[in-house]
Design brief:
The chain is mainly alpha-helical. 63% of the residues lie in helices and 0% in strands. The longest helix is centred in the middle third of the chain and has 24 residues. The protein starts with 28 loop residues before the first helix and ends in a 5-residue tail after the last helix.
């Protein structure tokens, strides 16, 4: 379960994140041995060295952290602030799988704020940017639903057209 910020009582930090000044129990000999053997066999080298794999890991963790922060902002109804965090996330981590999640959350925020046209544009962007991804059909379906909620003339015909495209393009999708 991901760590969630608290509201009210003091938080209990996750096991891997002890606050400064609180000492962790000394690692066992087997833990030290296990760590040393991992470092010796790790093609990147010891875990303290910055290598390409570690940079990628840090980038992924940074993107995941930004997404968690944005979700917490949404839970607190801080939609504009969450949207700004998500916009920054997709700009910095556009090739990350986390960016796809961020785009869907952006569309959800726009729908919550009844910014239907903006949500439609976001769903369209997802469907185009991630057309080979398993979630692309979901974006087109979201676009069709948002189209039906829009104030557009001919919205039913437009939604049918989108759904027809969805059915043809992703016929083998579950």
């Amino acid at each position: 379960e991901p760590y969630r910020p608290f509201l009210g009582s003091p938080p209990t930090p996750p096991p891997a994140q002890q606050p400064r000044g609180i000492e962790s129990p000394a690692p066992s000999a087997s833990a030290i041995s296990s760590s040393a053997s991992r470092d010796a066999t790790d093609p990147v080298g010891p875990s303290s060295h910055a290598g390409p794999g570690n940079v990628a890991t840090r980038e992924r963790q940074s993107a995941e952290q930004e997404l968690r922060i944005a979700r917490t902002k949404v839970e607190l109804n801080l939609y504009d602030q969450a949207f700004a965090t998500l916009r920054d996330l997709v700009a910095k981590h556009d090739d990350s799988p986390v960016a796809l999640e961020a785009y869907f959350l952006m569309a959800s925020i726009q729908e919550t704020q009844t910014k239907t046209e903006d949500a439609m544009a976001t769903y369209l962007e997802i469907a185009d940017r991630y057309r080979g991804n398993a979630r692309a059909p979901e974006a087109l379906f979201g676009l069709a639903q948002a189209t039906l909620r829009s104030g557009r003339d001919g919205k039913e015909a437009e939604a049918r057209k989108i759904l027809g495209h969805l059915a043809r393009r992703y016929a083998k999708s579950p």
